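Incident review: delayed structure delivery

Summary: a single-chain prediction request sat in the queue longer than the usual turnaround. Root cause was a stuck worker, restarted by the on-call engineer. No data loss occurred. The affected request and its eventual output are reproduced below so the record is complete for anyone auditing the incident later.

Affected input:
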Amino acid sequence: LLSGGFDSAVATWMALRWGSPVDLLHVELECSQRDHALAVAYELWNRWGAGCRPRAWVVDFTEVREALFRHIDDGHRQVVLKQLMLSAASLVASEERLAALVTGESVGQVSTQTVENLVQIDRAHAHTVLRPLAGLTKAEIVARANAIGTGALSSRAREVCDLSTGPVETAARPGRLRRAVAALPGDLVPRAVAARRVLDLDRWHPGAEPAPPLERSAAARA
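Output delivered after worker restart:
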């Protein structure tokens, strides 16, 4: 999962360093940030992706964002957003037969990344999540971003994931989260994933639009 900020870019680089092929998924809350995330994705591939052809998936969460504002209370909105992002990534990974998810979360760095909230986030999907930055400080992550060449780009990222205007729950309870998610239309995330678009990073240029979704045949789905 790639937002375009420091953390997710460094986590992607660490996965590449393991020798693992990596596809990148950006959850689009605002189109300007999508373009920035694709630029960071291209920089990572251009510098560190020799020998592989990673794809950049874009899942439009505009409708999800609006539903969160309508149905979810301020304190739980961020945690539910993270749950839905990981759920979307897990659906893509299942369809594309990808083994695991990688995120840039660092334990305790922000309110949604407490151990308690990460446990609840991971209950909302079926995939293993690798968090290579779990024990790093923000200063260490920024220093690594500068060393690998993504720091300057990531420093220009805008915060578009913060949907709350007040305190965020740091230890969300399972029952309250289930009730919150139950208030959302059940097909929100599957519809967003079905409409996802993809871009081959070796063909990216500023302003490049991801290709529209293609109708998958019954044989391909099988």
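Verification: The longest helix spans residues 74-96.
Action items: add queue-age alerting; document worker restart procedure.
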